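Narrative of activities, Objective 1.

The group set out to show that a structural description can be obtained from nothing but a protein's sequence at a throughput compatible with the screening campaign. Below is one input-output pair from the validation batch, recorded exactly as produced.
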Amino acid sequence: MAIAKAERLMNLALCLLGTRRPLTKRELRESIEAYIEAAAAAAAATAAAATGAIGSGAGDDAFNRMFERDKDDLRELGLIIETVESVDGEIGYLARRDSNRLPPITLDAEEAAALGLAAKVWQQARLAGAASGALQKLRAAGMPLAEDPYDTQPAGALEPRIPVHEAAFEPLMLACRDRRPVMFDYRKSNAAQPRQRHVEPWALECWRGHWYLAGWDRERTAERVFRLSRITGKVRLRAGSYTAEVPDHVTVRETVERWSGETATRTARIKLRSGHGYPLRARALHTRSLGDGWDELDIPYGHGLDAWLVEFGPDVVVLAPDELRADVVDRLRAVAKG
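Output recorded for this entry:
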């Protein structure tokens, strides 16, 4: 089985970095297995085509082409390869370590603490492994990451986390990065069945413990926000480019807050069971005790408040306005229908 190109490039880089003197093409050809295999395969193919007459230059040509491509690829990746001519005119190659060594990484205490805090955030996602590995390398290099000057709590008492339980997170993250349109089935909170959506994803945002996607809905020709926990089935990548212009700075948090009523200008009045619904109490404009285990709250009312209130189930009763009460009842009925 042929060795993968990435492994071949790694072997070539290690040979050039590990030598104390320039290595000729012949020496590199005899040291790297992939070059030996390529030359043998080229010679065998030539022999078969010539009914047994092996072309002596077939293996050399295959190796020369592969070596030149690999050398160019390594240089594009940033490796400095020197070409040295010996006294007898033979060309050799090497990559000096001092020329290819990155400058030392220097972080102050605040920067190191910020990196440590950021690495703790990612949980249950593919980024967790990369973040952990990066911290280990920085610690091995002597960076002051073991102690966090901002960590005044006992170990494990308070750690920031962004849970990623939704299967849609990773494909949507990659689609946002690569600017790839996507298609998925989405069930609105007041709908009994999911519907297919065609979206040009812009960015992901975690807000109130839930992940949201902001993007351009092609069918509705408008900006939309989707809660990842309501995406059913697989996220499918679509071919083609974006049809709508991506904003220079996508402030997804502001978009999510606007859709969820955070920037509301009206007021709603609700009954809330005592000892429940702390997030609602934190946003309340006024709170009055009604007795019998219930409180009355005045809270900001805007788009998306009905979906949020449904999450509190029987602990919340909408008193006013009537349209909000009707929307909450409709959503609860849709949930009851499954």
